[in-house]
Amino acid sequence: MQKINQWHQFDTAAQVADAVLEQILTSAESAIAERGKFKLVLAGGSTPEKIYQQLVDAKTDWSKWQIYYGDERCLPADDKDRNSIMAKQALLSKVAIPSSNIFTMPTELGAVKAAEKYRQMIANVEQFDLVLLGMGEDGHTASLFPGQQHDQNESVHEVYNSPKPPSDRISLSAKTLANTRKCFFIVTGESKQTPVSQWKQGADLPVASISPSAGVDIYIDSAAIA
User: What's the predicted TM-score (pTM) here?
Assistant: First the structure.
């Protein structure tokens, strides 16, 4: 039976970050104890970046962490606007996660080749332990945008004509993002009030298409609540 969404409201974005940080570490501890590894899908965005910066000081067995990405822009490998560069600067270059455990989307190759290669990279992932996602002002998540059509059976989509530059990206599919034990949405800021309201009212938004069997947990600050 599909579980309902759980909303966790905090006064500030900093409190959201603190709460999510704690839950990431709890999930990591459980996954490592039970299955010997922690498979985490990272999100882009300013609040996730703050969380990654705080994670640097965590007491955890980094050698057991496996890092994946929800989406990536088709930009040069060292471009500062890539999610992978943000995550590297905030966290990955500062902790002892083996490079072989970091599965970067090779979008410098273009959307077609990058999607093809990433499908191969994640082919043996039975299930993620935790997926982190944000939400845009139009209700998009990862690089799944309103009004765009994709083959729902694909594990990774090529994305063109993104409403925000750059136009070309790749994204894990809604089906792949839902294949997780836990899914946390991190939603902060006044600009999110309209899509949050629409989401709560059952609108057909990309955020609403992510439906793990365990439901999703939405960590949200007061500014994002209308």
Answer: 0.97
